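Let us work through a complete example step by step.
Step 1: write down the sequence.
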Amino acid sequence: MHRSYCDLTVGERRQIWDEIWEEAMRRKRELRHLKSEEEKQSWILALVNRKIKERKSKDKSLGL
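Step 2: predict the structure and record it as tokens.
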């Protein structure tokens, strides 16, 4: 039989909230990891693009 939240003991309520909190923090960590991965990839891409432009500029100046 399903009990309402009001019928639960303080300990049972606390356990439910602890589980909800843990899940929320896990999702937050995953999101932070994804953001940092995106930032890392963007930084690497910008660096590669800059190096390519430098190489093209150098090749032009050398007449290649």
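Step 3: interpret the result. The mean pLDDT is 87.
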